[in-house]
UniProtKB/TrEMBL annotation:
InterPro entries tied to this protein: HupE_UreJ
Record field: transmembrane: 29-47, 54-73, 79-98, 103-120, 132-156, 163-183
Keyword Secreted carried by entry: no
Protein's organism: Hoeflea prorocentri
Record protein name field: HupE/UreJ family protein
Protein's UniProt keywords contain Kinase: no
Record keywords, A-Z: Membrane, Transmembrane, Transmembrane helix
Amino acid sequence: MVLLVSQASAHSDDPGFVGGFVSGFTHPFYGWDHVLAMVAVGLWGAFLGSPAIWLLPVVFPLIMALGGVLGIFGVPLPGVETGIAASSVVLGLLIALAQRSPLWIAVVIVGSFAIFHGYAHGAELPSANSPLTYSVGFVLATGLLHLFGIGFGLVAGLPGGTFALRTAGFAIALAGLSILFGFW
């Protein structure tokens, strides 16, 4: 019987394999689409000021979890990859153009994109080693990326900071376009 046992998959090289907390925590840092969008949420929140500075980064993971549930249950959602790439383009442009949307519009925009990000990862959770710990790691990493965006966004209050913030928004939008059209 020992000779018939297959290799253990404790350290799988399969890129589709999803592990526990560490896998969930590191995953957002390896996808530029996620990094760009999460930093942009924090940047735009910082640009909009209170209460958006804390509300947008809270709304995103909450709605992302809803999208994740839709993905887990296989509810059809068309254009997921396009929605994810478009999140960087739209959020980047909102920052670059110094768009001061009313809070409810900002929440709707951020929440709409959160559904796509959550759906994509929820669809891969059923194969996870530990879906709960993967999700916790993923949400914590998402929060850290939001905090990075907020920290960078706070430079807008410094002399010359608005230019840096708008330039970052423009760079995020360009990177999002390159992802959207398959150049990256």
